[in-house]
Amino acid sequence: MNKKVEVLMSTYNGERFLKEQIDSILNQEDVEISLMIRDDGSTDGTINIINEIVKQNSNVSMYRGENLGPARSFMDLIYNSNEADYYAFADQDDVWDSKKIISAINKMNGKENEPSLYISALQVVDENLNEIEFRKVQGNFCLEGEMVKNFATGCTQVFNNSLRNLLKKYKPEFIIMHDSWITRVCYAVGGNVIIDENSYIKYRQHEKNLIGYRDAKLKKIKKQYKIAFKRNIRMRAQIARELKSGYPDEITIEANQLANNLINYNFDIRAKRWLLQNKKFRTNDNYINLKMFVAIVLNKF
Is residue 46 within 8 Å of 11, Cβ to Cβ? Predict the structure, then answer.
């Protein structure tokens, strides 16, 4: 019997490419697909397109909400999700290979009863689906590395019901992006994170992308500087508090130690030394590691 998969899509003024993407989702092979769409306040023809698709497909549903931005809109979809074997995020403007979901499920085979998350590579394309580049998943694949820099792209993520149930039980007040939060939760509770170096998605880049694959270099540097040094929010400490608050009974001993050190390093020299000396608390990018080192020393990490 085919596995039941609920695809969670957030839309916002996506009329241009939406139907092509939905068609590729509904054409998934060897799985039983349902598609739940949350519209995040569209003002173009997106709603009309979705309504027509809903009329023609009993396995597609839609609800509308206030504009929350992508992170909280996708999390709201999780909180409102229906019972299924697996779940997947979908952007509004990509194109999926027909075996995208079944390939992910096959990689997670045998892990149905443990929180499990699948992440794949990306085929980055332009608006006409011409390849720009192939991007593998790059990072230090553990909670420490993920806390330094998120390596997950939400539209490649597929997760099982066990992880979905954990995600539903707690709504974090502080969240940067849904994909990084989910990856960190999975690692923190000792779940499985499966990396696939293959890609089954055309990740479309165009002028209206909410979160583009390529920011202008100067703009990106300014944004990172503002987050890291001008805003006194210490993002990782905030995320660590959320993990401890949301999953006090599930978090592993190692994850709890990491969270405590992130929360306390600005006044506890032992915690700061632990972060600076921990070789797992790194990425494969020396520039990012240097910025992290400086930020920790200045209590801005």
Answer: yes
